[in-house]
Amino acid sequence: MRRSYSDRIFLFLSVLLIFYIGWFIINSFSRISRDPEEEMAYLHAISGSLPIVHNVHLCTSNEIDLIIIIISSGSNFLERQAIRETWGSISHIMNVHSQRLFVVGYHSSNNLYKDLSNEAHNEQDLLYLTIDDDLMTLKELHAYRWLDKYCPNVTFTFKTDDDLFVNSFLLHELIQELKTNPDKFQNRYLYNHSLDSLFLAHLNPDAHTFLFGWAFEPGKPERNASVSPYYVSYKEYSKELYPHYCSSFGYLMDSKTRNLLVEEGFNDKYPFRFSDIFITGILPERLNFICDSLPFTYHQGTTQDCIDIIKLHNKKTLKLSTPPLIVCSTGRHVAQNTFSDYYRIWSVLKFFFSNQISSTRSRKSKD
Question: Which range of residues forms the domain containing residue 72?
Answer without folding.
Answer: 64-366
